[in-house]
Amino acid sequence: MSDFTAQNVTSEPRVAEGEAGFGDYFALLKPRVMSLVVFTALVGLLVAPGGVSPMIGFTAILFIALGAGASGALNMWYDADIDAVMKRTAKRPVPAGKVPAGEALALGLWLSALSVAMLGLATNWVAAGLLAFTIFFYAVVYSMWLKRATPWNIVIGGAAGSFPPMIGWAAVTGDVSLASVLMFGLIFMWTPPHFWALALFMKSDYHKAKVPMLTVTHGRKETRKQILIYTVLLVPVALGLAFTSVAGPVYLATAIVLNVIFVKGAWDIWRREEDAAEADNYAVEKRVFKFSLLYLFLSFGALLIDAIWRLI
Amino acid sequence: MADTKGLTQTHEIHQRRLGRNVGTALCLLGFCAIVFGLTIAKVREGGLLEANDHVPRASVLPITEQLE
């Protein structure tokens, strides 16, 4: 009885543990992934022939980013169970108990609809259709189907992250061209070595979550070989882009240097024995992973410089 | 001494709710600004602005005069 009274007279409101702040909802949109989407979509938009007014360009980039964020929220809703197991993702809002899974789903669905509709109204329905397909591909094809089913999840699922420059291009031109397909191809071929390098030094996470990463299903030696194969396959795509109308000498020179370094890094990963990697705490794998981020940033940055160069 | 916590004291949960409400308000304001800015940009672009305004539009009327 006394306990009951004490609880009722206290002036302190009860803290709802799950009550999320604005930042928690923002975190559902995977802001770091969004930054890459913004950058690549912006380059796709700026190198496209024609051009749009700054306001329409800004709106297009904003809603492409929001669409990517929406697919991130849908991914967090669906993957909450495996996110809770992995150290890297355990603090995400849904597994941490800050945002209920249903709210993540609702936010993802509403933002998907809003971003596609607004991109269509601001630019054209080809770009909006590509954005809708990207969200569907990431949330359904990758998250719900491929991720838990096949070790090639990263290869096929990588398509979702490859669409933004193509959408940016379509926002201006209303079509799909060889140059936009090659920009798509650049990110598509870059994704497997990037993620497999990460998987090599984050091994316990994927094991624990029972996600069939290549390292888990085919072993680490095979993963090292596949990193080299995909990095070599990336070279013709990257150099092929240099001979389209969007690229110029800056991109060509940058692509040659970056691809030589990337292939050398992949070669080093392939040649390494697991014991040597364990001994230096995966120094080479970590170096190649960090370089892969720089690779993508500099490749698209070079395209941007060439586009500015043409305007001068 | 009496408890120094008054009715006006805000709890951490109130601050979180305030942050969420302010964030939502700013998002809505931003959305309105974008729609407004987009409208201005589209109007300035001109182009396909000939909507159905219940008056005859010259561009859709059949040519009635003989062209030389």
Keywords:
heterodimer, A: 312 residues, mainly alpha, Tetracycline Repressor, domain 2, 2 domains, 16 helices, disordered N terminus, B: 68 residues, rod-shaped
Poorly predicted ranges of chain A (pLDDT <50, ≥5 residues)? 1-16
Globally, the shape of chain B reads rod-shaped
Q: Give the oligomeric state of the chains in this entry, treating copies of one chain as homo and distinct chains as hetero.
A: heterodimer
The number of helical elements of chain A comes to 16
Query: What is the mean predicted local confidence, pLDDT of chain A?
Result: 90
Structural class of chain B: mainly alpha
Class per helix and strand makeup of chain A: mainly alpha
CATH topology name of the largest domain in chain A: Tetracycline Repressor, domain 2
Number of strands of chain A: 0
Total tally of structural domains of chain A: 2
What percent strand of chain A? under 5%
CATH architecture of the largest domain in chain A: Orthogonal Bundle
Contiguous runs where pLDDT drops below 50 for at least 5 residues of chain B = none
Structure description:
- The complex is a heterodimer of chains A (312) and B (68).
- Chain A has 312 residues and is an all-alpha fold.
- Chain A is 78% helix and 0% strand.
- Chain A folds into two domains: 27-175, Orthogonal Bundle (Tetracycline Repressor, domain 2); 177-312.
- Chain A is built from 16 helices and no strands.
- In chain A, helix 14 (249-271) packs antiparallel against helix 16.
- Chain A is flat.
- Mean pLDDT of chain A is 90; it is low at 1-16.
- Chain B is an all-alpha fold and 68 residues long.
- Chain B has a domain at 17-45.
- Chain B is built from one helix and no strands.
- The radius of gyration of chain B is 28 Å and the shape is rod-shaped.
- The mean pLDDT of chain B is 76.
- The A-B interface holds A 11-13, 15-16, 19-23, 25-26, 53, 55-56, 59, 62, 118, 121-122 and B 3, 5, 7, 11-14, 16-17, 19-20, 22-24, 34, 37-38, 40-42, 44-45.
